Amino acid sequence: MLSYQIPLVPGPVSVPEAVRAVYQVDYASADLEEEFFALYAACESKLQRVLGASAAVTIQTGEGMLALWGALKSVIRPGDRVLAVGTGLFGYGIGDMARQVGAEVETVGFPFDAIVDPDAVRAAALRFRPKLITAVHCETPSGTLNPLDELGRISREVDALFYVDFVASGGGAPVDVDRCAIDLGLLGSQKVLSLPPDLSMVSVSERAWRAVADVGYAGYDALAPWKDGPARRYLPYTHNWSAVAALDVALDLLLDEGLEQAYARHASVAERCRRRLEGMGIRLYPAQEAYNSPTVTAAYVPDGWTWPTLDGALRAHGMAVGGNYGELAGKVFRIGHMGSQADLALIERGLDVLAQVLAAGAPA
To answer: Domains, the chain, ranges and CATH?
Structure first.
């Protein structure tokens, strides 16, 4: 089994011991025990606090992509109009997913090293009149963080549902579901929450529930059964009790720290990471630091190195960071400082290793 002493990949992140311990407990069948439904309700309430959401929050078994697919398929039919806001791999990718569902998709696209321009989105939305507008808060491959509040207002102006992927930011940066008028807010367990990739969570507004009922999608990832299934004690499948118990522990850790304190911790660790990279002569991606996410830092592979040689050299010293995809593959690498990894001592250790590796020089 692979194990790294300095884990700095941008998810799945390292799992704290208090969370891991929960997985060592035996559990009964979730759909038969009142204790599980009480636990589910408690986790939903805590998620509402973390996300700034008065809306219901579903908790489903499956990795974060289940939330992305399930929310799309639950509210759109073939032929429905979807406006996809793309500033990176996932933003553009959600548009591709909607096309596979049969939607008529228009993409408002921006470069991977940029963030959203709300004026361009508003112009497209007023012309295209979509049923759904999609966006990504933290574009993990690009290390960028998009503003959401203006996009929420645009969605209301054109009477569109607002679908937001905040898988890599929720808990590490404010997402403010209610304030940003987010109808479908998507979260995964393996990022800031610092759990294994076991759970997907979706905040669902009343507007979104009406669309769910109208579309009537049925499938493993469907949202419909979660509207009243937990209250009726009738789930669509046997839930992962140990994962929900671990979620409860993880949410307590976050809320006990305090959300503002957690946001400040992520911001300060990100700041230290970027200053040290610059001190080594490594260029940040993007160059405009105002665009950078507090949960992940992207940077160019240093001159004289290839990504495989840099990755191999770091791993030889017990450090793992992330490579990249698409047009950034081989050019930009990523350091994940989210959740348990938003730790100043861990970042210092990792960047000490990077400095040592660079000083030794790339293999001939």
So the answer is: 6-13+259-360 (3.90.1150.10), 17-256 (3.40.640.10)
